[in-house]
Design brief:
Layout (H helix, E strand, L loop, with lengths): L2 H13 L15 E4 L6 H15 L6 E5 L10 H9 L6 E5 L3 H10 L5 H15 L7 H4 L3 H11 L2 H8 L4 E3 L3 E4 L14 H6 L2 H4 L8 E4 L8 E3 L2 E3 L4 H4 L3 E6 L2 E6 L1
Parallel strand pairs: 1-2, 2-3, 5-6, 6-8
Antiparallel strand pairs: 1-9, 4-5, 7-8, 9-10
Helix pairs in contact: 4-5
Protein name: Metallophosphoesterase
Length: 258
């Protein structure tokens, strides 16, 4: 992480409002978790179609949990957000968790992250999806302050408000859904929002037993990563064309991809 990103992280960590942390008992609810989407609305639609086919034989209402990182890198960030703002498929509820890319976009909007640092996260693709040209805009607005003011005014407030309201995790009796993971040395109630969307090595390499199954994304792999106590669903959808889904029901996990 660059010095400027590290400073931004510390400032925004103190300034952000804590995000919601809903709890839910999913013992009798077929639950589908979807990994990092990153601007691939086409794959999100295919994943939902696969979920509907799989769920047709299962009883009652179902739940879809998206694990964050809906924007950047892929071509349709705005379209992914608009899709997730629409009602979920019939017979389903949906919970959209925040990822570090959504929080970075808000950090830029709120003035805690510079335009250049935001662009380093693949956010030029997001601007293009909103009909904005990240290569031409700095020529039109040679002043960074003017460029920032224009973009903060141009990005749709409904999308910004939707991202602001996203919970940071979903806690259930046997499974924790979160974007990046948890600090294994802390109880779930003591996890910081920063760790929940950014943690890697302290979580991935820890030998401390986890308190429950952690279903997460954030760290890309070629295949879904199945480990004792955790399940990583980030399969680089924006580049691989594989958006991975996990169905959790009756103590079992079933994996499938686009």
């Amino acid at each position: 992480m660059s010095d400027s990103l590290a400073r931004r992280s510390e400032v925004s960590k103190m300034a952000r409002e804590p995000r919601p942390r809903p709890t839910l008992d999913i013992a009798d609810i077929p639950t589908y978790a979807i990994g990092d989407i990153h601007g691939r609305r086409d794959l999100l639609v295919k994943a939902e179609q696969a979920i509907l086919r799989d769920a047709a034989r299962l009883p009652g209402r179902k739940l879809i949990v998206t694990l964050g990182d809906y924007i950047d890198r892929g071509p349709e960030s705005a379209q992914v957000i608009a899709h997730l703002m629409d009602p979920p498929p019939q017979g389903f509820d949906r919970i959209c968790l925040a990822g570090n890319h959504e929080i970075a976009m808000l950090d830029y909007i709120d003035g805690w992250l510079s335009y250049d640092d935001w662009m380093r996260m693949g956010s030029a693709h997001s601007l293009k999806s909103y009909g904005l040209d990240p290569e031409h805009l700095p020529l039109v607005f040679p002043s960074g302050a003017q460029l920032d003011a224009f973009l903060r005014h141009s990005l749709p407030h409904t999308h910004i408000d939707f991202m602001r309201a996203m919970p940071i995790m979903l806690d259930t009796p046997s499974v924790l859904f979160v974007h990046a993971g948890i600090d294994p040395a802390r109880p779930i109630a003591a996890q910081t929002d920063e760790d929940l969307v950014l943690i890697r090595h302290r979580f991935l390499e820890s030998r401390i037993p986890l308190p429950k199954l952690v279903v997460h994304g954030h760290t890309p792999n070629d295949e879904p990563e199945v480990r004792a106590g955790r399940l990583n669903l980030d399969t680089r959808a924006y580049r691989s064309g594989r958006l991975t889904v996990a169905r959790l029901w009756q103590g079992q996990v079933h994996l499938f991809s686009t």
